[in-house]
Write a structure and sequence with these properties.
Layout lengths: L1 E5 L3 H11 L6 E6 L2 H11 L3 E5 L7 H8 L4 E6 L6 H7 L3 E3 L4 H15 L5 H14 L6 E6 L2 E6 L3 E7 L2 E6 L2 E5 L3 H7 L5 E5 L2 E4 L3 E6 L5 E5 L4 E4 L3 H8 L2
Parallel strand pairs: 1-2, 1-3, 3-4, 4-5
Antiparallel strand pairs: 6-7, 8-9, 8-12, 9-10, 11-12, 13-14, 14-15
Pfam family, one: Response_reg
GO molecular function: DNA binding
Protein name: LytTR family DNA-binding domain-containing protein
Amino acid sequence: MRVIIVDDEPLARAVLREHLGFFPDVEISGECANGFQAVKAIAELAPDLVFLDIQMPKLDGFEVVELAGAKTHYVFVTAYDQFALRAFDVHALDYLLKPFTRERLAQALAHVRERVAAPAQGGDTMRALVADAQARHQPIERVLIRDGARVQVIPVDRIDYVEAQDDYVAFFADGRQWLKNQRMAELENQLDPQAFLRVHRSYIVNLSAIARIEPTGKDGHCAVLKSGARIPISRSGYPKVRDLMR
C-alpha cells in the first residue's frame, strides 16, 4: 500500500511516519506540508491512500479532496473533533483524532484494506463524506477553480453573482467569469445565507453587490448590481431579497 502523509506540522508527520514503519505492507511515497503540495503529489504519485490533516495553510483537507478527487482513498488526521465526526463515522474510510495509538492506526489501515477490496464504492463514499462535512462546516470563505494546471482562488466576498450554466456554475467577480463543475444546490448550501441569496433558479446573488431592485413588467423584478449586471428575480425570490435588504 503506497501512502502519502499530509500535515503542516513536522512533528505530526514524524509520529505518523514512525507508526507506519511497523506495517511492512505500507510504503510512504511522499510527505507534504500544505494542501497545494498535496494536490500535486496525489496527481503525480497516484497513492493508494492519503493521510490528510484538515487544518492547514493554503488549502485545508476538504479543499485538497475537492481538487485531487476521489481516485485515491483518504484517512483524515486531526487534533480537532468538531469536523463532522458523526458523518465521518458513517462515510469516511477513517478519522484519526490526534494523539492516536498504533493500535488505532492499525484499525484505520484495516478499514482501508476492506475498501480497496470493494473499490466501486469509493467515489460515492468520498462525495458523501465531503458533502456531509461541508454541510456541518462554517460557510466557505473562498472558491477553488481549476484553470489548467493552475488553481484560481476567489474570495467569496468578491463574487457579485453566480449563474447556473448546464452542468457548471459561472462565478462573476472583478469583471471576470470563471466556470466550475458544481451543482447550484450544493454551492447554495456552502455559502453564507446572510450574504448570498438564490433569487432565481439559475442565479445566486451577493446581497452587498445589489445597487437596487427594479420592476420588470407585470409582477416581475430584477436586481441591478453595482457592476451594471441585471439579474432576474423569481416571484418566490422577491420577498426574500426584499426582506434581507431592509
